[in-house]
C-alpha cells in the first residue's frame, strides 16, 4: 500500500530538514517507546504523536519523498537506559540530524559535523541517567538506509515496525569509548542532572 494524496503532499512540503524538524515539534511526544508501539509514518500522521524512532522514520520518509537518502542513526546506550534514534541528513559536505525527543538536549543538530562520529559524539555528554548522572551512551550505527534495507511498505504499515528497530539495532555499530575511558568517566554535575529533568511533556 502506498501513501495517499494528502500524505504525499504533506511529506513533500517537508522539503528541508528544518521543515521536517519544525513539523515534528508540532506532534505530541508519545511515551509508548518501550515494547508497546512503533507506528509507521501513516499512523504517526493520523495520531499526531511520535516517540524518537517514529519521528526518525517519519523524517526519513520525508527525506525520501524529496529525493534525499532516508538515513537513520542509532545511538545505543547501556542496558539500563534507552537508545535514541535520529534521521541523518547532509548539507555542504557536513552531517546534521533531525530528532524527536521529549528532553531538552537530545535534539536537532545543525549540519556542521564532518563525520557521523562527530555528530554522534555531540550527544554523548548529555546522555546520562537522571538518577545518578552516569553517562550511558556506548556506540553508534553506520548510516542506515531504511528504504534500501526495507523497501517503502513500512511507511504505511498498520502493524508495529519492531522488525525495523531490531534490524537497525543489529546493524554495524562503532564503539565510542574504550574500556579504560568508560571506567574514568565523570558523572554529570547536579545542575546537569537537574537540567536533564526538563521535558516538553510530562
CATH topology: C8orf32 fold
Number of helices: 9
Number of domains: 1
Average predicted confidence as pLDDT: 95
Which secondary-structure class do the elements indicate? alpha+beta
Weakly predicted, low-confidence segments: none
User: For the report, how would you describe the main beta sheet?
Assistant: 7 strands, antiparallel
Structural description of this entry:
This protein is 35% helix and 19% strand. With 202 residues, the protein is α+β, with helices and mostly antiparallel strands. The longest helix is centred in the first third of the chain and has 14 residues, at 52-65. The protein has a single domain, classed as C8orf32 fold, CATH 3.10.620.
Task: Give the arrangement of secondary structure elements.
Layout: H1 5-13, H2 17-25, E1 28-29, H3 41-47, E2 49-50, H4 52-65, E3 71-77, E4 84-91, E5 94-98, E6 109-113, H5 116-121, E7 137-141, E8 144-145, H6 146-150, H7 162-169, E9 173-175, H8 179-183, H9 190-196
Parallel strand pairs: 1-2
Antiparallel strand pairs: 3-4, 3-7, 3-8, 4-5, 5-6, 7-9
Helix pairs in contact: 1-4, 2-4
Summarize the entry for a quick read.
With 202 residues, the protein is α+β, with helices and mostly antiparallel strands. It contains 9 helices and 9 strands.
Amino acid at each position: 500500500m502506498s501513501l495517499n494524496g494528502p500524505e504525499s503532499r504533506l511529506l513533500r512540503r517537508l522539503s528541508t530538514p528544518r521543515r521536517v524538524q519544525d513539523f515534528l515539534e508540532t506532534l505530541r511526544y508519545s511515551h509508548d517507546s518501550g515494547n508497546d508501539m512503533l507506528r509507521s509514518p501513516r499512523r504517526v500522521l493520523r495520531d499526531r504523536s511520535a516517540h524518537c524512532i517514529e519521528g526518525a522514520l517519519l523524517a526519513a520518509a520525508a527525506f525520501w519523498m524529496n529525493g534525499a537518502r532516508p538515513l537513520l542513526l542509532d545511538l545505543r546506550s547501556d542496558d539500563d537506559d534507552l537508545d535514541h534514534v535520529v534521521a541523518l541528513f547532509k548539507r555542504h559536505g557536513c552531517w546534521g540530524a533531525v530528532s524527536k525527543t521529549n528532553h531538552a538536549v537530545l535534539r536537532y543538530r545543525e549540519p556542521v559535523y564532518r563525520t557521523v562520529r562527530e555528530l554522534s559524539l555531540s550527544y554523548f555528554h548529555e546522555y546520562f541517567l537522571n538518577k545518578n548522572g552516569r553517562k550511558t551512551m556506548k556506540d553508534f550505527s553506520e548510516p542506515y538506509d531504511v528504504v534500501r534495507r526495507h523497501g517503502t511498505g513500512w511507511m504505511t504499515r498498520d502493524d508495529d515496525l519492531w522488525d525495523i528497530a531490531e534490524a537497525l539495532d543489529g546493524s554495524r555499530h562503532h564503539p565510542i569509548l574504550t574500556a579504560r575511558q568508560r571506567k574514568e568517566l565523570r558523572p554529570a554535575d547536579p545542575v546537569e542532572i537537574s537540567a536533564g529533568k526538563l521535558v516538553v511533556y510530562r
